[in-house]
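Weekend entry, working from home. Most of the wet-lab plans are on hold until the incubator is repaired, so I used the time to fold the two sequences that have been sitting in the queue since the last round of cloning. Logging both here for the record. First:
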Amino acid sequence: MKILILNGPNINMLGIREPHIYGTNNYETLCENIKNYCNLKNIDYTIYQSNHEGDLVDQIQKAYFDKVDGIIINPGAYTHTSIAILDALKASNIKTVEVHISCVNEREDFRKVSYVSLYAFKCISGEGIDGYLHAIDELIGK
């Protein structure tokens, strides 16, 4: 199985940005946890982070041509604004799990709107960085 893990704006600031909401683990820890879990499960993976919407769209489109089996996406703030990311996911037709480190439904009203959820078959929210591991299991059917 081949998966793409996409992280949107400010995810690279984990451990720095609002640790009372997002926790104290940094981005490197998140990536290391994903790497170890994917290696344990014998999954081919790519992790990509960008603060730029178009870069994320480009990676989703590239995933289609690279024959990626699944996408895990934490679109960050683009969750609530990006029809472009939604359209790219729809065009790629790749099985997708949406992940949020915090429990977005318990936060500001604007965070309760997710364009990505209109496509993703599952949304994992509020599990911290372990939500990514849960998302991997959802993709591989475990």
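Second, folded right after the first finished:
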Amino acid sequence: MKNVIGFLLSLLLLVSCGEMDEKEYYLEGAWALTHVAYPTELTIDYPYRGMTYLNIYDGDSVLYVCQLFYTGSGIVVAPLQTIQVSLIRLAPNEQLYMEDGDPHPLVIKSDSVITIQRSGVISTWVRASDMTEGRINEIREIIKNDQKNDANEAVRHYVLSTTERKLLSANHRLLYALITALVCMLVAVQIAITKHQRVKRADRRLREIEEERELRPQPVRMALKAVEQEFLESGYYRSIHRFIAEGKRMKAEDWEELERQLNVVYPSFTNHLFSLYPMSELEYQVSLLIKLRISPSDMANVLARDISTISSTRSRLYQKVFHRKGSSREWDDFVLSIGS
């Protein structure tokens, strides 16, 4: 009797040791759907039309389910659900696969291939060996953080931030750079066209001003000269010269009166100036003072500028209007010739 009991204990010990030595199977990691067989003998291979399903098992207890869409520019994740799972061993290569308490037969084909049967439909899954640990963690976090959609809300999609997203981002940056370069080029062309048109208009106006002066009949020239001489001897001319020589600052109404007086003596004088170039306030005031025959030093005083600024303003105006370098004196001569 003792021998029989010892034999049974030894047998139980051997069986227990065998079960302990037998390698336990885990579904840990990412598994991709590759094949689905239906009872009607219909079969579908995945990826199907660029889409497949991905299961991520977390310690054989939690399952994260999503769809993967393969596009030309990367991989897009569509989170589906999170399921509680467990495995119950039935045989060396057979497990009872529980999803939220619902059992399904699971057959272990190899370390990297399994099949799961649901209502007669057999799906084949393989370990996603192309998925790095970083990518698996990223997809898991996407599914975990995705809020439950309402019944009427479409499933949200996420572009992976690994290689595909980086390539997509690089493509977007390149596209934005090309668009920016194109816009800059168009702006530069537009500026060049506008400048060219302005130059043509200025050249045309210069020719018109010159022709107008050359084609004046002698009586008209003499009349204009007489009006000019009368202005140079007028009380207004002497008072404005004295006012400026005393270093007094001109107010807005003083500039307006000066402009009015000059346009009476030299018809369309200010229109001629602005038709040649869109002058700044300083450039315009300097030109008015030139026509009034004010010295550069007095210009500097009344405009509260250095005399060097007055000189450079005049030479720059000549270059802007005639498109070639010239001296400040050359601009003075041109302004004095307008309307004379």
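Plan for Monday: verify the second prediction. Residues 2-22 have pLDDT under 50 and may be disordered.
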